[in-house]
Amino acid sequence: MTSPEIDEDYFYQRAETELELAQKATHPAAVRAHYIIANHYLDRVYSQPDSALTAEVAAE
């Protein structure tokens, strides 16, 4: 099983790649698609794990 740090590094690098592809794309639909994919990868990097969110709600 991989560690969360490795997953975060992978998803961050994939987001960077998608942003680069978006900047190079010439068709508006391709640009949009790359930005959407990059956003999904960044969500994976910066979102809280479900267990942390559950613990936070339970503490309230």
Folded structure, characterized:
By secondary structure, the chain is mostly helical. It has one domain. Helices cover 83% and strands 0% of the residues. The protein has 3 helices and no strands. Helix 1 packs antiparallel against helix 2 (28-46). The termini are far apart.
Distance between the termini: 32 Å
Helix content: over 70%
Largest sheet: none
- Shape descriptor reads elongated
Q: Kindly report the oligomeric state of this protein.
A: single chain
Q: Compute the CA-based radius of gyration.
A: 15 Å
What value does the average pLDDT take? Answer: 84
Poorly predicted runs? none
Return the domain count: 1
- Helix-strand pattern: HHH
**Structural class by helix and strand composition:** mainly alpha
Give me the number of helical elements.
3
Strand content: under 5%
Protein name: DUF4167 domain-containing protein
Kindly list the characteristics that best describe this protein.
single chain; 60 residues; mainly alpha; 3 helices; elongated; DUF4167 domain-containing protein
Brief write-up:
It comes from Sphingomonas yabuuchiae. This protein is an all-alpha fold.
Outline the secondary-structure elements.
Layout: H1 4-24, H2 28-46, H3 50-59
Helix pairs in contact: 1-2
